[in-house]
Amino acid sequence: MPIDKESVSADLLCDAGVAHLDNAGAALMPRCVLETQIDHLRLEAAVGGYEAERLRSAQLDAVYDSVARLLNCRRDEVAIVENATVGWMMAFYAIPFEPGDRILTAEAEYASNYLAYLQIARDRGMVVETVPSTADGELCTESLGKMINERVKLISITHVPTNGGLVNPVEEIGAIARANDILYLVDACQSAGQISLDVDAIQCDFLSATGRKWLRGPRGVGFLYVSNRILDSLHPPMIDLF
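The structure assignment produced for this chain is given below.
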Protein backbone atom coordinates (compact mmCIF):
# COMPACT_ATOMS: atom_id res chain seq x y z
CA MET A 1 0.00 0.00 0.00
CA PRO A 2 1.49 3.41 -0.96
CA ILE A 3 2.41 5.80 1.84
CA ASP A 4 0.50 9.08 2.04
CA LYS A 5 3.53 11.31 2.58
CA GLU A 6 1.46 14.43 3.32
CA SER A 7 -0.49 12.79 6.15
CA VAL A 8 2.71 11.29 7.58
CA SER A 9 4.42 14.70 7.53
CA ALA A 10 1.39 16.38 9.10
CA ASP A 11 1.55 13.94 12.01
CA LEU A 12 5.12 14.95 12.91
CA LEU A 13 6.25 17.73 15.21
CA CYS A 14 9.42 18.57 13.29
CA ASP A 15 9.74 21.60 11.05
CA ALA A 16 8.48 21.29 7.49
CA GLY A 17 11.14 20.07 5.10
CA VAL A 18 13.17 18.22 7.74
CA ALA A 19 14.53 14.91 6.46
CA HIS A 20 15.19 12.60 9.41
CA LEU A 21 17.66 9.93 8.32
CA ASP A 22 18.34 8.17 11.63
CA ASN A 23 15.34 5.84 11.91
CA ALA A 24 17.88 3.05 12.45
CA GLY A 25 18.73 4.79 15.73
CA ALA A 26 15.37 6.25 16.73
CA ALA A 27 12.54 7.33 14.45
CA LEU A 28 10.46 10.47 14.78
CA MET A 29 7.36 9.59 16.79
CA PRO A 30 3.90 10.39 15.38
CA ARG A 31 1.90 12.96 17.29
CA CYS A 32 -0.39 10.25 18.72
CA VAL A 33 2.55 8.44 20.33
CA LEU A 34 3.81 11.60 22.00
CA GLU A 35 0.33 12.62 23.18
CA THR A 36 -0.38 9.15 24.59
CA GLN A 37 2.81 9.30 26.68
CA ILE A 38 2.06 12.81 27.93
CA ASP A 39 -1.53 11.90 28.78
CA HIS A 40 -0.35 8.91 30.80
CA LEU A 41 2.21 10.99 32.68
CA ARG A 42 -0.54 13.47 33.54
CA LEU A 43 -2.73 10.60 34.72
CA GLU A 44 0.06 9.26 36.93
CA ALA A 45 0.58 12.72 38.39
CA ALA A 46 -3.13 12.91 39.20
CA VAL A 47 -3.83 9.44 40.61
CA GLY A 48 -0.44 7.70 41.08
CA GLY A 49 1.46 5.15 39.05
CA TYR A 50 -0.32 1.98 40.16
CA GLU A 51 -3.79 3.45 39.82
CA ALA A 52 -2.90 4.81 36.38
CA GLU A 53 -1.76 1.34 35.37
CA ARG A 54 -5.07 -0.12 36.56
CA LEU A 55 -7.09 2.48 34.68
CA ARG A 56 -5.16 1.84 31.48
CA SER A 57 -4.85 -1.93 31.90
CA ALA A 58 -6.88 -2.72 28.78
CA GLN A 59 -4.67 -0.53 26.57
CA LEU A 60 -1.48 -1.91 28.11
CA ASP A 61 -2.72 -5.49 27.74
CA ALA A 62 -3.60 -4.87 24.08
CA VAL A 63 0.09 -4.36 23.27
CA TYR A 64 0.59 -8.13 23.53
CA ASP A 65 -2.10 -8.65 20.90
CA SER A 66 -0.53 -6.00 18.65
CA VAL A 67 2.88 -7.66 18.79
CA ALA A 68 1.32 -11.09 18.23
CA ARG A 69 -0.38 -9.79 15.06
CA LEU A 70 2.87 -8.23 13.90
CA LEU A 71 4.77 -11.51 14.26
CA ASN A 72 1.95 -13.99 13.53
CA CYS A 73 2.29 -15.67 16.91
CA ARG A 74 0.23 -16.15 20.07
CA ARG A 75 0.07 -13.42 22.69
CA ASP A 76 1.35 -15.83 25.37
CA GLU A 77 4.56 -16.16 23.33
CA VAL A 78 5.29 -12.43 23.70
CA ALA A 79 7.18 -10.62 26.47
CA ILE A 80 7.25 -6.82 26.68
CA VAL A 81 10.65 -5.65 27.91
CA GLU A 82 12.65 -2.43 28.30
CA ASN A 83 14.43 -2.70 24.96
CA ALA A 84 15.57 -5.14 22.30
CA THR A 85 18.87 -5.84 24.06
CA VAL A 86 17.11 -6.91 27.26
CA GLY A 87 14.82 -9.18 25.24
CA TRP A 88 17.71 -10.71 23.30
CA MET A 89 19.74 -11.28 26.48
CA MET A 90 16.81 -12.87 28.31
CA ALA A 91 16.48 -15.35 25.47
CA PHE A 92 20.17 -16.05 24.96
CA TYR A 93 21.07 -16.53 28.63
CA ALA A 94 18.07 -18.84 29.16
CA ILE A 95 19.56 -21.46 26.83
CA PRO A 96 21.14 -24.35 28.79
CA PHE A 97 24.52 -24.43 27.06
CA GLU A 98 27.00 -27.18 27.87
CA PRO A 99 30.75 -27.58 27.31
CA GLY A 100 31.52 -28.38 23.69
CA ASP A 101 28.34 -26.82 22.33
CA ARG A 102 28.71 -24.69 19.19
CA ILE A 103 27.10 -21.34 18.34
CA LEU A 104 26.90 -20.46 14.65
CA THR A 105 26.46 -16.83 13.62
CA ALA A 106 26.97 -14.50 10.67
CA GLU A 107 30.07 -12.48 9.82
CA ALA A 108 27.92 -9.33 9.92
CA GLU A 109 26.67 -10.01 13.44
CA TYR A 110 25.83 -7.19 15.88
CA ALA A 111 28.85 -6.54 18.11
CA SER A 112 26.90 -6.59 21.39
CA ASN A 113 25.51 -10.03 20.57
CA TYR A 114 28.95 -11.34 19.67
CA LEU A 115 30.33 -10.20 23.01
CA ALA A 116 27.67 -12.31 24.72
CA TYR A 117 28.71 -15.32 22.62
CA LEU A 118 32.35 -14.84 23.63
CA GLN A 119 31.49 -14.46 27.30
CA ILE A 120 29.39 -17.60 27.54
CA ALA A 121 31.90 -19.55 25.41
CA ARG A 122 34.65 -18.58 27.83
CA ASP A 123 32.58 -19.40 30.92
CA ARG A 124 31.11 -22.71 29.72
CA GLY A 125 33.76 -24.09 27.38
CA MET A 126 31.85 -23.59 24.16
CA VAL A 127 32.80 -22.67 20.60
CA VAL A 128 31.63 -19.67 18.55
CA GLU A 129 31.93 -19.91 14.76
CA THR A 130 31.02 -17.51 11.98
CA VAL A 131 29.42 -18.84 8.82
CA PRO A 132 31.04 -17.56 5.59
CA SER A 133 29.18 -14.90 3.60
CA THR A 134 28.16 -14.86 -0.04
CA ALA A 135 29.70 -12.36 -2.46
CA ASP A 136 26.82 -10.00 -1.60
CA GLY A 137 27.55 -10.18 2.13
CA GLU A 138 24.67 -12.18 3.53
CA LEU A 139 25.13 -15.47 5.33
CA CYS A 140 25.76 -18.34 2.93
CA THR A 141 23.14 -21.00 3.63
CA GLU A 142 25.09 -23.63 1.68
CA SER A 143 28.07 -23.09 4.00
CA LEU A 144 25.76 -23.16 7.01
CA GLY A 145 24.41 -26.55 5.98
CA LYS A 146 27.93 -27.97 5.77
CA MET A 147 28.77 -26.73 9.30
CA ILE A 148 25.86 -28.50 10.98
CA ASN A 149 26.56 -31.38 13.35
CA GLU A 150 25.17 -32.74 16.62
CA ARG A 151 27.15 -30.19 18.71
CA VAL A 152 25.48 -27.10 17.21
CA LYS A 153 23.25 -25.80 19.98
CA LEU A 154 22.26 -22.42 18.55
CA ILE A 155 22.11 -20.52 15.28
CA SER A 156 21.91 -16.80 16.10
CA ILE A 157 21.51 -14.21 13.37
CA THR A 158 20.95 -10.47 13.05
CA HIS A 159 18.28 -10.12 10.36
CA VAL A 160 19.32 -6.63 9.19
CA PRO A 161 22.72 -5.49 10.51
CA THR A 162 23.02 -1.96 11.91
CA ASN A 163 24.94 -0.50 8.96
CA GLY A 164 24.23 -0.91 5.26
CA GLY A 165 21.43 -2.55 3.32
CA LEU A 166 22.24 -6.20 4.02
CA VAL A 167 19.30 -8.53 4.71
CA ASN A 168 20.15 -12.03 5.91
CA PRO A 169 18.01 -14.94 4.57
CA VAL A 170 16.29 -15.71 7.87
CA GLU A 171 13.66 -18.05 6.42
CA GLU A 172 16.21 -20.23 4.64
CA ILE A 173 18.33 -20.30 7.80
CA GLY A 174 15.24 -21.23 9.81
CA ALA A 175 14.51 -24.18 7.55
CA ILE A 176 18.01 -25.54 8.21
CA ALA A 177 17.70 -24.99 11.96
CA ARG A 178 14.30 -26.68 12.18
CA ALA A 179 15.35 -29.65 10.02
CA ASN A 180 18.24 -30.27 12.41
CA ASP A 181 16.36 -29.46 15.63
CA ILE A 182 18.70 -26.56 16.47
CA LEU A 183 17.63 -23.52 18.49
CA TYR A 184 17.33 -20.39 16.34
CA LEU A 185 17.54 -16.80 17.64
CA VAL A 186 16.78 -13.82 15.37
CA ASP A 187 17.70 -10.23 16.21
CA ALA A 188 15.04 -8.23 14.33
CA CYS A 189 15.90 -4.86 15.86
CA GLN A 190 16.40 -3.22 12.45
CA SER A 191 13.81 -5.19 10.49
CA ALA A 192 10.68 -4.87 12.66
CA GLY A 193 8.61 -2.19 10.99
CA GLN A 194 10.60 -2.33 7.74
CA ILE A 195 10.13 -5.96 6.71
CA SER A 196 7.19 -8.29 7.33
CA LEU A 197 8.03 -10.73 10.13
CA ASP A 198 6.22 -14.06 10.32
CA VAL A 199 7.74 -16.33 12.93
CA ASP A 200 6.02 -19.37 11.39
CA ALA A 201 7.73 -18.67 8.07
CA ILE A 202 11.06 -17.82 9.72
CA GLN A 203 10.76 -20.91 11.97
CA CYS A 204 12.69 -19.18 14.74
CA ASP A 205 12.50 -20.08 18.41
CA PHE A 206 13.25 -16.54 19.57
CA LEU A 207 12.93 -13.09 18.00
CA SER A 208 13.76 -9.77 19.65
CA ALA A 209 13.03 -6.22 18.50
CA THR A 210 12.52 -2.64 19.66
CA GLY A 211 9.69 -0.16 19.27
CA ARG A 212 11.66 3.03 18.85
CA LYS A 213 13.10 2.47 15.37
CA TRP A 214 10.97 1.59 12.33
CA LEU A 215 7.82 1.00 14.39
CA ARG A 216 8.03 4.66 15.52
CA GLY A 217 7.15 3.88 19.11
CA PRO A 218 8.51 5.39 22.32
CA ARG A 219 11.95 4.70 23.75
CA GLY A 220 12.07 2.20 26.59
CA VAL A 221 9.88 -0.48 24.97
CA GLY A 222 11.01 -3.68 23.29
CA PHE A 223 9.59 -7.15 22.85
CA LEU A 224 10.68 -10.77 22.74
CA TYR A 225 8.99 -13.71 21.05
CA VAL A 226 9.66 -17.16 22.49
CA SER A 227 8.02 -20.18 20.89
CA ASN A 228 5.85 -22.31 23.16
CA ARG A 229 7.55 -25.24 21.48
CA ILE A 230 10.73 -24.74 23.50
CA LEU A 231 9.61 -22.91 26.66
CA ASP A 232 9.94 -25.93 28.93
CA SER A 233 13.58 -26.45 27.92
CA LEU A 234 14.72 -22.96 28.96
CA HIS A 235 16.25 -21.73 32.22
CA PRO A 236 15.60 -17.96 32.54
CA PRO A 237 18.53 -16.11 34.14
CA MET A 238 16.11 -14.07 36.29
CA ILE A 239 12.63 -14.92 37.54
CA ASP A 240 10.02 -12.58 39.03
CA LEU A 241 6.23 -12.45 39.44
CA PHE A 242 5.79 -12.11 35.67
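Interim note for the steering committee: The domain at 57-233 is CATH 3.40.640.10 (Aspartate Aminotransferase; domain 2). The first helix runs from residue 5 to 10.
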